[in-house]
What does this fold into?
Amino acid sequence: MQKSLMSKLIGGVAGLAMMSGVAVAQDKVDVVHWWTSGGEAAALNVLKGNLEKEGVTWNDVPIAGGAGAQAMTALRAMVTAGNVPTAVQMLGFDITDWAEQGVVADLNEIGAEEKWDDVVPAALQKFAKYEDKWIAAPVNVHSVNWIWVNKAAMDKIGVTEAPTTMDELFAMLDKAKEAGLIPLAQGGQPWQEATMFDSVVIATNGLDFYKKAFIDLDESAINSPEMTKAFENLVKLASYADPAMSGREWNLATAMVVKGDALLQVMGDWAKGEFNAAEKKPGTDFMCFRFPGTQGNVVFNSDMFVLFEVGEERRPAQAKLASAVLDPAFQSTFNVVKGSVPARTDVPDTDFDECGKKGMADLKEANEKGTLVGSLAQGYGQPTAIKNAYYDVVTNVFHGQMTAADAPAALAEAINAAK
Ligand code: BGC
It folds into this structure.
């Protein structure tokens, strides 16, 4: 009798635990991402808040490191261990890689119901779909070819206009140096240097050259005197950074510009999220200019949430997440905070500041004119192995371990080896 009561009790407790376990799983999303800076966390809170309103609990799995290399390593370990997340922030070719492994969820039903085909730009659909099926929900469009300038520092050195060529940029950096400022706020990590080099290549040799070298992988462009010239410009830029740059995180470099210790940073528009978080205003506290010599071009990346194939009980919350990400109102609120622009073409620019409005107009124009191109450094040019080969050569040149003259041949060799 006692025994049977006990087993009933145990059964009851286990049943309750199971029920609550199911309830938790149904209402919870486990999300891997690398949004750990102040501005990034503020943007992510918009999504968390919206989901919480729908009764979904957010289990945060943050893995710091721009461009997501560390997050991708951690993800591989998680999936191998059978610990599959609900959703993962991902870029470009990494998305295709995971889709090829057959472990991502099929979002076609939601995509069709919400007509994603009609509103997500084609350049993004190329990565958000695999074999014609939606597998990822794009959150934003970032672009890397920007410079972020402290306004007071700009006034101090007597510069009134945006620099439009590399020479004008160098002249501006020289003035900052003479005025005792750190001219270039730089984080010393390979992905940051490569992100800057994307813009340098276009500024030095034009967009067609960039496409030939980095999208078509034409060796006559990769290993060329023009590429040497681009590396020479990179070396020159490196000379304007302070000696403490090694290993510095990108947001700490942004903070140097926010405070006015440094004149400017070359960085994707996630940097604006840091100005936002510090309550700084464009036009008054800081300026956003296209990287000189890249006006009219948009070198993009887009953060997407890839949803993984999960058990039945986790799917409703997963679907709510996908839907929340593509919601037009969310796309506006989130991207205003994040510094990026919406991944939908039908979101008004009303709530965006002047940098955001410019970002949206530039994207539209570049899309129409064919001057929208994927960032190699940010995973939208080539698969990871080639991107990493690019990082290696660029970082060696940036830190004086390889000459600009030797770099093009080394880059061609490294890319060939990674193919
Ligand atoms: C992502 C941004 C992020 C940045 C720095 C980029 O790869 O696309 O969303 O803010 O890394 O963490």
User: Anything to note?
Assistant: Residues 34, 40, 66-68, 91, 142, 250, 270, 301, 303, 378 surround beta-D-glucopyranose (CB under 6 Å). The longest strand covers residues 28-33.
